[in-house]
Amino acid sequence: MGGSAPFTKLLLADIGPLALAALVSLGSGCGALLFSLAGTAAGTRRSHVEAPPGRGEIPWLIGVTLFGGLLAPVTLVYSLPGTPAATAALLLNFEAVATTLIAATIFREWVSRRVWVALGCITASCLLLTWNPAAGLGLSLPALGILLTCLFWAVDNNLGQRLSAKDPLLVISVKGIGAGTVTLLVALTAGEHLPATATAAAAMAVGFLCYGGLTSILFLLALRGIGAARAGSLLAVSPFFGVLFSLLLFAELPAGAFYVALPVMAIGAWLMISEEHSHPHRHPGVVHEHRHRHDDQHHDHDHEAGDPPLSAAGEHSHVHAHAELAHEHPHQPDIHHRHLHRR
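Structure tokens predicted for DMT family transporter:
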């Protein structure tokens, strides 16, 4: 994820912006599809270990395709040319802020005071990086474009939370191939041309490694385990790797405000990723389906004859019931801990 800004800016020298946005989305979706097919060829039936999206998940699939696969990459590629790569990489930390704000205010995930302080630090750094006295409104439009990109990805992250119990390879395949195909048609209609095969392959590789492929698969698994707000918090680490890549790839140096914003943002990132949470809580009875193991206190259910066998890793997926349970232990807002909190 951290390499998305510098590597995308590097590719813009040889590829039109819309074509590049299409290729990174297609790279993410095709890469996920190949991984899924490779697992099937090896004899692993994914339906035994992962639950496929159903009709109820179609609106969420459309949402992540639109915001994460189409709007975010297109906005980013048009914003990068006017922003130093290191500054752009650091601005991408706003994704953690926007993801957490949406998770807390709309989807009611609990956020501690420590995290609110962290969000303030990161937001202040982003505002400092966006400030440009020479611009008409005193704000850099390309920098604002990157913040808008972060907002689109934040919406994508929170909608993805509703898909986190489903097969991540299938979700990312639909998202990437769907968004990439639409963007490619728009690019060709606008008169852009596909680059040479090697350049196109490089763009698709960046898409799989840095955009919605491998990173999104891992992020969906993180959403399943720790919720959107906490997974968004961990995103605050990746832009620092992007800064490192930017300084290595480009001779341009960021403006002076960058060196003030960097340590403030580092403090905010540390506050977010070091948060802990534990309190007495109650689990209502529920019936659902997702990938699970049987080595925790939430999955001690019995099995029926038609349930799929356990994989080599001791996992499988089937419809199962949870009885009501009240207890206390350290936890995150995963798919079993999305309870309300007293303010």
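The chain has one domain: 4-279.
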